[in-house]
Specification:
Chain B: It is found in: Cell membrane. The complex is a heterotrimer. Chain A is mainly α. Chain A has helices at 17-22, 27-57, 72-108, 116-135, 158-161, 165-194, 207-238, 252-286, 293-306, 325-350, 359-382, 384-390, 394-424, 430-456, 476-506; strands at residues 546-547, 556-557. In chain A, strand 1 and strand 2 (556-557) form a beta hairpin. In chain A, helix 7 (207-238) packs antiparallel against helix 8 and helix 14 (430-456) packs antiparallel against helix 15 (476-506). Chain A is globular, with a radius of gyration of 24 Å. The two termini of chain A are 28 Å apart. Classes of the chains: A mainly alpha, B mainly alpha, C mainly alpha.
Chain lengths: 571, 196, 92
């Protein structure tokens, strides 16, 4: 049995402000804390995207809202921080930590996580990491500017970037972030293993729980070598060692290997919870059991395993041993197979479903569509022969934004609109949600589809002023158009921001189960009380997604009700 | 309304592994990747350019051997803590835990002496690839030893309270798993950095 | 039974093995020729690690799932090692 450390709140005793909102061990409050951290950083990261795009479209001009131009060094810092923020301080806290924390105990019928105090520590460590990252902007030399990938020697020698403390603080912030997610990951793994309610066998858990578990496992196993690398980089920067510096006997390529050994599994760490959220939304709004529950789980596990042997496809033109190109191309192409399976399973779920279109579903389906598109361009990147031409161009930028944005933002918004009623007890405004969706979806396409052309046209990544290069002059018009679309994309987010905060106070009070879902989180109040269920924890009788079961007398059967006579579960 | 997540009346579906043990083993899995990454990197560099490990003879084999025996013994006393808990022997529990903490300090103390000697001789991390690895690997390991000492000290304090032994004594197993892991890392660092 | 102390402990024997193996490694490094010494000391290190893992960390009595939490990371470390050989070892 789990060892729950003493709860800070005794039964019946009201907790003060600090215990309730700040020092809480309740997984739901911790989830909200993660969400606010993530949304804060999303705003910052989005603003940086705007700055980057303005500079690319109108180089060396005053940037509106910032009030001044930026030079190449600052540009590098904005690019670095945009990537770092979006991956480590938005994607992971929102999808993995916030929704993972909120939903896992609810979906498996537990009253809280296995280690509530460790959970609280994890969000506090992330908060500390955030403060350190913010601080890195204000030290002399400014924030880290060696790319979110931090390649040495650029990152190892302060003289090359002019950044001193900023890079060390960046490393420290990342180290703390890793620590935070290692702690969180332990909760995400142990809780579903040991704290499921009666009747909840492993293959009766909602897919979202599986996705979070596998993502946590992938993170746990991949981050170690990068931590080792970060220690080495800190030593190179501060104690004059030469782990990554060739003159002293080191090897810059080593960092790349250590980084990407983590970096590639990391993109699946981000993707899986988003896919999981999309799966939950799609099955609910298709009124149809998800197609291929077990094959999906197996495919994700296979993809997770494969993710550890594809990493060097990020290094095809780095000076990598050419004999590694083919093996890593092969594994990279193979990894598209399990994901194709998942995509087909989702399409099959939608097929002939009784589709209900509400904002969460628009985002989920839109996210799937863009993800398919982004995944397809991945195949070009994964094949070394083609990659040699498109590596380090905007084709790659377009590719990973298509896959990351679709999962993180479109999938993330699907999750937010879907579970907001449960999290905050209010319904979001549907009209604003629609405006938000169409603005986001269409302007996203307007930004990133043309960007593939920019990349194929030869524009390199990480250059502050494309105007310096004559051969890029024909692309200037496209760049300006992309920037304009970016501005509209970001403006569309205000529909969401307004909706999010306004609904919290003025939204229609949410019922327990506004979407007619079958999983356990929909069997309690919105928001759930401390302890998640006011009475006994429900027990579970069959797998989830009991929509339209053949032979059933009812249209849909939640997990905590026995199957009506005559019905057979699908999974 | 119960906030205790393991109220027996709502018997959960569970694996046969206690949560705390599972949590610790998941954590150790991630730590294997950290030290594994470091050790692999060291091995790769060694295989690439033999000769820079000539620095090994600057390490005192004597001190390294003593430290190895110190840590091995502390692993023994640590598992004795766990065994004492299983036999409800509070006295041996406290004695062995105190010994483990003490031996941990001895280990760090000897490492400190070694570091000071190296630095006095100008053998600093920047001196060569070997010294970079030596300080990096033993430094990270030392931090883990320190963390283990802190964890054990917390356990000692918790168990010393009235009723503490009954309530918290079982945590010795978790502390032990961590401590043994730190010992295993040293079992590999010793030949890699001292014996060549 | 209560006053047996360390004498009755099954772990004492393991500790003795560990000490002997540690001292043997040192001896091997001093006495044997280089290649044989290297092979010996690392083999002995692996044996010592397995002893600690099986007996002190109780892996001997744990179910296979717990073992896999060690074996899978070790396999990944091996993957990392193999993947880096062409660049770091050969290509320098």
């Amino acid at each position: 049995m789990s060892e729950t450390l003493a709860a800070p709140v005794e039964h019946g005793e009201p907790a003060g402000f600090w215990r309730t909102y700040v020092f809480s061990t309740d997984h739901k409050m911790i989830a909200r804390q993660y969400m606010f951290i993530a949304l804060f950083w999303a705003a910052v990261g989005g603003f940086f995207a705007y700055i980057i795009r303005w500079q690319l479209a109108h180089p060396d001009t005053d940037i509106p809202l910032l009030g001044r131009p930026i030079g190449p060094e600052e540009y590098n810092a904005f690019v670095t921080m945009h990537g770092t923020i979006m991956v480590f301080f938005v994607a992971m806290p929102l999808l993995l930590a916030s929704f993972g924390n909120f939903l896992i105990p609810l979906m498996i019928g537990a009253r809280d996580m296995a280690f509530p105090r460790l959970n609280m520590l994890s969000v506090w460590v992330l908060a500390l990491a955030s403060l350190i990252l913010i601080g890195s902007f204000f030290v002399e030399g400014g924030a880290a500017s060696a790319g979110w990938t931090g390649y040495p020697p650029l990152s190892a020698k302060p003289a090359y970037t002019g950044v001193e403390w900023g890079m060390d603080l960046w490393l420290l912030a990342l180290a703390l972030e890793f620590g935070s997610f290692l702690m969180g990951g332990i909760n995400f793994l142990v809780t579903p293993m040991n704290m499921r309610t009666r009747g909840m066998g492993f293959f009766r858990m909602p897919l979202f729980v599986w996705m979070v578990m596998i993502a946590s496992l992938i993170f746990l196993l991949s981050v170690g070598p990068l931590i080792a690398g970060a220690v080495m980089l800190l030593l190179d920067r501060n104690l004059g060692t030469s782990f990554f510096m060739a003159p002293g006997g080191g090897d810059p390529l080593l960092w790349q290997h250590l980084f990407w050994f983590f970096g590639h599994p990391e993109v699946y760490v981000i993707l899986l919870p988003a896919l999981g959220a999309m799966m939950e939304v799609m099955t609910t709004f298709s009124r149809k059991t998800i197609f291929g529950y077990r094959p999906i789980i197996i495919a994700v596990i296979v993809a997770g395993g494969l993710s550890f042997v594809v990493w060097a496809h990020h290094q095809f033109i780095s000076g990598l041993d050419p004999r590694l190109a083919t093996p890593f191309s092969v594994t990279t192409i193979i990894i598209s197979v399990p994901f194709a399976l998942i995509v087909f399973a989702l399409l099959a779920t939608l097929w002939r479903g009784s589709i209900r279109l509400a904002t969460p579903m628009w985002f989920a389906v839109g996210g799937l569509a863009v993800f398919i598109f982004g995944g397809l361009t991945g195949i070009f990147n994964g094949s070394a022969a083609v990659d040699i031409y498109i590596h380090d161009t905007y084709f790659v930028v377009a590719h990973f934004h298509s896959t990351l944005f679709s999962s993180l933002f479109l999938g993330g918004f699907a999750a937010i609109y879907y579970w907001y009623p449960k999290m905050f007890g209010r319904m979001m405004n549907e009209a604003l949600g629609q405006l938000h969706f169409w603005g986001t979806f269409l302007f996203f396409l307007a930004v990133f589809v043309p960007m593939h052309l920019v990349g194929v046209g030869g524009m390199m990544r990480r250059i502050a002023n494309p105007g310096q290069y004559e051969f890029l002059a024909p692309l200037a018009g496209l760049n300006r158009m992309i920037t304009m679309s970016t501005i509209f994309l970001l403006l569309s987010q205000f529909f969401f921001v307004f909706n999010f905060f306004w609904s919290m106070f003025r939204g229609r009070p949410a019922p327990e189960n506004p979407w007619d879902g079958t999983t356990l989180e929909w069997t309690t109040l919105s928001p759930p009380p401390h302890g998640n269920w006011p009475g006994e924890v429900p027990r579970v009788y069959h797998p989830p997604y009991g929509y339209g079961l053949p032979g059933a007398s009812e249209d849909w059967v939640p997990q905590h009700r026995p199957l009506p006579s005559g019905a057979a579960p699908r999974t | 309304m119960s906030t205790a997540a393991h109220a027996p009346a709502e018997a959960a579906e569970s694996t046969p592994f206690p949560s705390a043990k599972l949590g610790m083993w998941w954590f150790l899995a991630s730590e294997i990747m950290v030290f594994g990454g470091l050790i692999v990197t060291y091995l790769l560099f060694r295989m690439a350019g033999p000769g820079w490990t000539a620095d090994i003879h600057h390490n005192s084999t004597l001190l390294g051997t003593i430290n190895t025996l110190v840590l091995l013994t502390s692993s023994f006393t640590m598992v004795e803590v766990h065994r004492a808990r299983g036999r409800d022997d509070e006295r041996r529990f406290r004695l062995n835990l105190a010994l483990t903490i003490l031996l941990g300090f001895v280990f760090l103390g000897i490492k400190g002496v070694e570091y000071a000697a190296h630095i006095r001789e100008g053998l600093v991390p920047a001196k060569s690839m070997f010294w970079a690895f030596y300080f990096g690997m033993t430094g990270l390991h030392g931090l883990h030893v320190a963390g283990g000492i802190v964890a054990n000290a917390c356990l000692y304090a918790a168990a010393a309270r009235p009723g503490g032994f009954a309530r918290y004594g079982h945590r010795a197993e978790m502390n032990g798993l961590y401590w043994h892991f730190v010992d295993v890392v040293w079992i590999f660092l010793f030949p890699l950095l001292y014996l060549g | 039974m209560k006053e047996e102390g360390a004498h009755g402990s099954p772990y004492l024997l393991i500790w003795i093995y560990l000490v002997v193996l540690a001292l043997a490694s040192v001896a091997a490094s001093l006495v044997l020729p280089k290649a044989a010494a290297e092979l010996t000391i690392y083999l002995l290190a692996v044996v010592k690690a397995i002893l600690v893992a099986l007996y002190f960390m109780h892996l001997k009595v744990e179910r296979f799932f717990i073992h896999s939490l060690t074996l899978i990371p070790l396999a990944l470390v091996l993957v990392l090692f193999l993947g880096l050989i062409p660049d770091i070892v050969v290509g320098r």
